[in-house]
Design a protein that fits this description.
The complex is a heterodimer of chains A (about 250) and B (about 230). Chain A is α/β, with parallel strands linked by helices and about 250 residues long. Chain A is about 40% helix and about 30% strand. The longest helix of chain A has 15 residues. Chain B is α/β, with parallel strands linked by helices and about 230 residues long. Classes of the chains: A alpha/beta (about 250), B alpha/beta (about 230).
């Protein structure tokens, strides 16, 4: 039976892993290669690296990090942040990424998602959606949560699936860094609207939140950063907790 | 230096992952990622990976003049197909109604929309993405050291349906049983990604780089439980 995935997320800037609250107030969490190695040993199902500043200087740094991680960690690696053209996708894949996550550029240039999926296959194109509640629906934001787009998140998810996205990384901006749990309504609304896998992100503070994301949010994978980086919980501990609550996991 | 292992590059997907993992399990071997038919012919063993869509895959194979080199390698030396590199060994893929290499009899089909729900009625997503149990349908040197039902990493929307059931080396469930590994004399091919399947994946790749197809029975006798 297919296991639900646990994905530690490493937000990287200037070659270091950091974690913010509501996308700001960054706190240093360590060396990305060392952290990746530790998560791999603890049984992480995949790793996601988000290059959160993604300036051109930083781009070379993340390529070196991915190369170093890919030489010794043999699980799927997703990299996102600042992907603007098909050539960016190519460079990240060449460095050892297995999937590339596209966020802002999917909004400014949806054709990029189609071109990248046509060229490299849907299996390696993840579209990241940062969504914020707006009355009775959710709105898509870009530029690390700074720019409103007016797009409805559920409709946007369907459009991205149609253009060839193989997976959606869905972050609730209202919950990110708050430790109050995923936005389960948002997660479920999008998971039900599309046929491709959904990674729930934003707000994990307890292991029960991971269980809720799968059971109530119907997420196919759950992503978390701070609960793992700062040693509150281990990835292996999280998996055992999910299994105790009836969720199929890889132990 | 002679090439021990050639990884066939036809422009489809992330070959760095495959070559890195092979270098990891065979640090003293010479591993090349190549689109040169002569290099493939000269290699001791061949890995045929691939991601993306079947029509593009077949087009790229022919654009690079690789068809004959792949067919020859699949008939003559230890040959490992991975993901799309497994699917196009068969005769035909439903994806883009594509004629494939026809090295193995059978077809490639999409997970049918109407079947994609679990026992509780919950929708199952396509692509089938993540870690699933692989059940070993036959003893084989490449399974040595890997537990029955071990989890491997999958990402695909299509699966193979071999005409001859005796080539089925492994199967998985999503939600119905589908073939995820096939084996003939010198070919082993898998739908999952051993290069991304952590320790069990590395074990499988390690078994491949030392596999001598002509000595299959001997290898099994020496391997213990996995071949019992």
């Amino acid at each position: 039976m297919l296991a639900k995935r646990i994905i530690p997320c490493l937000d990287v800037t200037n070659g270091r892993v950091v974690k913010g609250v509501n996308f700001v107030e960054l706190k240093d969490a360590g060396d990305p290669v060392e952290i990746a190695r530790r998560y791999n040993e603890a049984g992480a199902d995949e790793l996601t690296f988000l290059d959160i500043t993604a300036s051109s200087d930083n781009r070379d740094l993340i390529l070196h990090i991915i190369e170093a991680v890919a030489s010794e960690v043999f699980i799927p690696l997703t990299v996102g942040g600042g992907v603007r053209v098909v050539g960016d996708v190519q460079r990240l894949l060449n460095a050892g990424a297995d999937k590339v996550s596209i966020n802002t550029s999917a909004v400014t240039n949806p054709q990029l998602v189609k071109d990248a999926a046509d060229r490299y296959g849907s299996q390696c194109i993840v579209v990241a959606i940062d969504a914020k509640r707006a009355g009775d629906h959710w709105e898509v934001f870009t530029h690390g949560g700074r720019t409103a787009t007016g797009l409805d998140a559920v409709e946007w998810a369907k459009k991205m699936e149609n253009l060839g996205a193989g997976e959606l990384l869905l972050t609730s901006m209202d919950r990110d860094g708050t430790k109050s749990g995923f936005d389960l309504e948002l997660t479920r609304a999008i998971s039900d609207a599309v046929d491709i896998p959904i990674i729930a992100s934003g707000g994990v503070g307890t292991l029960q939140h991971l269980v809720d994301g799968v059971k109530e949010g119907r997420a196919d994978a759950v992503l978390a950063a701070s609960i793992f980086h700062f040693g509150e919980y281990g990835v292996d501990e999280a998996k055992r907790y999910m299994k105790q609550h009836g969720i199929e996991v890889r132990l | 230096m002679s090439v021990d292992i050639a990884v066939i590059d036809y422009g489809m997907g992330n070959l760095r992952s495959v070559s890195k993992a092979i270098e990891h399990v065979a640090p003293s071997a010479s591993v090349v990622v190549t689109s040169d038919p002569a290099a493939i012919a000269a290699a001791g063993r061949v890995v045929f990976p691939g991601q993306g869509a079947a029509p593009d895959c077949m087009r790229e194979i022919d654009a690079r003049g690789l068809r004959q080199a792949i067919v020859d390698a699949a008939r003559s030396k230890p040959f490992l197909g991975i993901c799309m590199g497994m699917q196009v060994l068969f005769e035909h893929s439903e994806e883009g109604d594509t004629a494939c290499l026809g090295i193995l009899p059978g077809t490639v089909q999409r997970f049918p929309h109407e079947a994609m729900h679990d026992d509780a009625g919950s929708k199952l997503k396509v692509p089938h993405m993540g870690w699933n149990n692989v059940h070993q349908a036959m003893p084989h040197p490449l399974w040595v050291g890997i537990e029955e039902g071990a989890r491997f990493y999958f990402v695909h929307s299509y699966f193979v349906q071999p005409t001859a059931p005796d080539v089925i080396a492994g199967f998985s469930h999503y939600p119905f049983p589908f073939t995820c590994a096939v084996a003939t004399a010198n070919i082993f091919a898998v739908q999952f990604h051993p290069e991304k399947s952590q320790n069990d994946g590395l074990t499988l790749l390690g078994n491949f780089v030392t596999w001598n197809p002509g000595e299959r029975d001997t290898a099994c006798d020496m391997s213990g439980a996995a071949c019992a």
